[in-house]
Amino acid sequence: MELLEAIILAVLAASTPLLIAATGELVTERSGVLNLGVEGMMIVGAACGFAGAWLTGSILIGALFGIVAGTLMSLIFALMALGLAVNQVATGLALTILGVGLSGLIGAGFVGERITPAAHLYIPGLTDIPLIGRVLFGEDAFVYSSLTLIVGVWWFLYRTRPGLILRACGDSHVSAHALGYPVLRIRTFAVMFGGACAGLAGAYLPLAYTPFFIPGMTAGRGWIALALVVFSSWRPGRLVVGAYLFGAVTILQLHAQGWGVGIPSQFMSALPYLATVIVLVLLSRARTGGSTAPAALGTVFVPDR
Amino acid sequence: MRKTLLALAAGLLLAGSVSAASAADKLKVGFIYLGPVGDLGWTYQHELARQALVKELGDKIETTFLENVPEGPDAERSIEQLVRAGNKLIFTTSFGYMDPTLKVAKKYPNVHFEHATGYKRNPNMSTYSAKWYQGRYIQGLIAAKMSKSGVLGYIGSFPIPEVVSGINATILAAQTINPNIKVKIIWANTWFDPGKEADAAKALIDQGADVIMQHTDSPAAMQIASERGKLAFGQDSEMIKFGPKTQLTSILDTWGPYYIARVKAELDGTWKSEDTWGGLDSHMFAMAPYTNMPDDVKKMAEDAQAAITAGKLHPFKCPVVGQDGKPVECKGGDHLDDGQILGMNFYVKGIDDKIPGK
Predict the structure, then answer these.
(1) Best of A15, A18, A214, A269 to disrupt the B interface by mutation (most B CBs within 10 Å)?
(2) CA-based, 20 to 30 A from B293: which of A128, A282, B86, B206?
(3) pTM for this prediction
């Protein structure tokens, strides 16, 4: 029982940064912009988040630093890819390379320092319930925020008019433009939201997961977040399932090794990725007519004035 | 436009040769690093050694390093870049640089190369590594004494001989204290991913391990052990900051003395291609202070360290019994020989697991 609880807690912790970053990227891509710089924005968010928390002693301020840093990084992307209509794939990749270097520079002075990680919720009585107590009532603020965030995004995209307009920009920027919507401005906001989420996801790593900063500590999580958006076929509900599934396979394969299940660990480490590929294949087979991707995804839009 | 570019290029070349000439009286020494210098682990220790080198011989040499150089074709370009910049002695500090280093070495016979932890050599290319399994043996002794649950947790990177021999040395030592000691092994399949290393440490502790040892690079496992009130060993560098009440000791890579010796040889003109595999006796690595343990355990660790250093105790002294219960052939007299340890691909008896992929 205790072991099961421990596993669920570890899964939630491992999935949360993926979920936050992927939520942001989902909104960005729904507006028709492909920002491959998630890893870069995350790692800068991690460096700035740690810096903020270490300097002020406040996890909240650290998280805000991470959000602002991610947003600033995404503004560089917006300037290039939206303002100057540069190829989005190239800009995104450049943003990642820039982010990795920049985070090393920002974080250099903080390597080797440690902070007290984000506090976990504790409600006497509720948190002490066996099995579900700590899972439901004993998480840190990041976990609760990630769930609030994805519910909010779902509500925004499918239940509000601005959400509908944002999706319209992603499916046909020409039509949206013809209807008089400011496509580039809407996309800029979507890109900034993506950056803010990536920054927060990055900040989660040094503020809650492993409370220290080391260059390169995101270790490819930004790329997994990108894959998750495709995995979810751009739908918030499936994104939650995908993120937790990915986290669960990652954690369970570690436990399976500890139990001595006779499966090679190399295969186990590849399992989460294999699962992604399989789901993609299933999705593409089950698809009934048309692509699930936003139709204008990744295409450059230059409004004729 | 084309002409301007050509002129510019010529100008740059000229500038380059001028600066090279002005520095010709100093020996140029180059370093290729795998990670960032601030990784607090593998690369950081090489960087500390470089700094020690500069401190010792700074008036006679000029050093350059390239960090974050990926293993593979990119490495070849980076090594060549150092050659063209006039470096006469180049240290390539990761296993994956082996083939790129050899390729560049063959192309530039007048430049000397030093490759860490590899096995391919050339008349102008040496290799160097450390007998870390000696340190693992000491850790195994401590772990068995300190474990209350009798279950040790081991985080591996990749199932290569260096890591496997470390696991075996640990468990052989632990068995001398507690014959029934158990070890749970989790392979992270990465050298560096703090999140995953932390997850692995959590899984091991959740499954009952109370002493965590790692062969991956970040202090994440140490930090998790500290959070959970367990004990752990550091890796590559001093990690006590991440677990002041947790770290028992750490194997510290100390490349400094070797780098200084090799650069001195280069300055004297006595450098030649060699294969160096040094242990505690030649200071290729050191043990961090023994902390968070009772005095008798500390004394035992210090005694073992002294015995290994003096050559009186060999971690792989025969008979070494394999998982099938049969003793392994003893090629080194009363202990396994270097070749057997360098190529180790079996678990010893008492490890209740299989090497992945075998």
Answers:
(1) A214
(2) B206
(3) 0.86
